[in-house]
Task: structure prediction
Amino acid sequence: MSETLWLGLGLMLVFEGIMPFTLPHVWRATLRRMAELTDGQIRLIGFCSLIAGLLISLAAK
Result:
C-alpha cells in the first residue's frame, strides 16, 4: 500500500508541474484570478476536487 501512495503522490506532482512548466504565463494569470475569489468559492472548488478525487479512487478499485 505504501508503494501505491508514493506512486500516487509522484503522479500528482507530475500533473501539478505540467502547467507551470509548459505555460507559466497562463499559470500565473490563473493564480491571480484565484486570489480574487471569495473564501466560499475557493471552498467549493476544493470540495468539488475532493469529491472528484474520491470518485476516481473508488472507480479505480
